[in-house]
Amino acid sequence: MPRTVLALTVGFLLQPQPMAAQDKWDFVVAPYVLAPSIGGTTTLGRIGGDVSIDPGDVWKNLESGGMLRIEGRHETGFGFALDYSFMDLGNGASSPIGDIRADYNQSVFEAVATYQMDRNGDQVDLYAGLRHWDIDAKANILTGPATGQVNHKANWTDPIIGLRWQRRLSPEWRLMMQGDVGSGESEFTWNAMGGFAYDRWENTSVFIMYRALGVDYEKGTQGTSSYFEYDTVTQGILAGVGFRF
Description:
The protein is mainly beta.
């Protein structure tokens, strides 16, 4: 299977500890990294099949990438969150159809509105917005029956709605759980994550979480050269740092 499928990433919802509002707004800037594994099915034209990629494969083929989240919250409880991640993968690969030279660029952007509630000491955040995918894949098949070049570009946007829950375990530790679902230009997309935040410093938090992100997208007519399918689940450990101001 071409390594063009390696670039599915995800943009994660990282939420450091909220601050008491000194003015009207509090903000969080949170860079993060993800070590994903990928499983599912992907098809470029008439070339496709099952996908099973581990974190070592992703890092071996990584040429560039970055992940960043920005959140703002008003003292009324309303706020927003922006999340952007991109990954550029390009390297040689092998598959049952022959040797492949793959180049893959993928970005995911999320923009949501949020509302924070307090339920018996637990923090609950409702959110709704959009998740946008942008994928540019090119595979040069060097040997085998399907020798040639396959190019596919796809971008799509899905409305999403979700919930985030947090509980304070100690003055320094928080437990966090989150999930959302959506559907629009894709058949279905979903996100689930959970983990811990360490609030050791006044304006800085460290996160360790596990996340799974799924999407089922199809474009074109199956069996033709224009067909593109992306039905995968990406999951793995996420680590990040949140700076509050």
